[in-house]
From TrEMBL:
EC number per UniProt: 3.1.3.16
GO MF annotation list: metal ion binding; protein serine/threonine phosphatase activity
Protein name: protein-serine/threonine phosphatase
Enzyme category, top tier: hydrolase
Pfam name, any one: PP2C
Domain PPM-type phosphatase: start-end pairs: 29-199
Origin organism lineage: Eukaryota, Viridiplantae, Streptophyta, Embryophyta, Tracheophyta
CDD domains referenced in this protein's UniProt entry, alphabetically: PP2Cc (cd00143)
Length: 199
């Protein structure tokens, strides 16, 4: 049985989740490709880094799904910089949650200041940091981490993250507090009247 609790970050929305697990092994990782995806450029990247800072109990796993004209460059940039930030953070073992949030914020800032034109491009990120017998799950965007949990003779899927999308009331509110507007495509194209999404 897993226990988990949401830890708040500086933006007052879920970015990282702490999950305590009983077993220390991770097995049977799978990926899936939808047949229609073969016709489009794959802008995804992933990262598996074991024994961070030489510690046999600290590992990182991430999937980055780029989008837009420069989605590949965005996903590769975030994959590279995020793990570099975590690996070099001296507070990683003392305060993994703080190091994780700092790495995400710094990587985001570096991407904005890079040569990559991310005005119409970007990447989502779903990541897991394993420190001993604790999982830290952080996400940006609409990809999800799921764990299989045994319940009697059944295996159930339990979400470890929550999609960060503007249709969630709390996320819509956070985006608006930053000065942005939330619109659906028909509203942007003038086909539908603007209303308050997320209410």
């Amino acid at each position: 049985m897993c226990s988990w609790k949401v830890l708040p970050d500086i933006y007052h929305h879920q970015m990282a989740t702490r999950v305590t697990i009983e077993k220390r092994s991770i097995a049977n990782a799978n990926t899936f490709l939808h047949k229609d995806a073969v016709e489009r450029e794959n802008q995804d990247s992933f990262c598996i880094k074991t024994q961070i800072q030489g510690n046999p109990n600290v590992h990182f796993f991430g999937v980055f799904d780029g989008h837009g004209p420069y989605g590949t460059q965005c996903s590769n940039f975030v994959e590279d910089r995020l793990i570099e930030m975590l690996s070099s953070d001296s507070t990683l073992l003392d305060d993994p949650f703080k190091a994780y949030n700092s790495a995400f914020l710094a990587t985001n800032s570096e991407l904005h200041n890079s040569e990559i034109d991310e005005t119409m491009s970007g990447t989502i990120a779903i990541t897991v940091l394993v420190v001993g017998d604790t999982l830290y799950v952080a996400n940006v965007g609409d990809s999800r981490a799921v764990v299989a949990v045994k319940d009697g003779d059944q295996i159930l899927a339990e979400d470890l993250s929550e999609d960060q999308i503007p249709f969630r009331k709390d996320e819509c509110g956070r985006v608006k507090l930053c000065g942005a507007r939330v619109l659906i495509v028909d509203q942007v194209e003038g086909l539908k009247e603007c209303s308050n999404l997320g209410r």
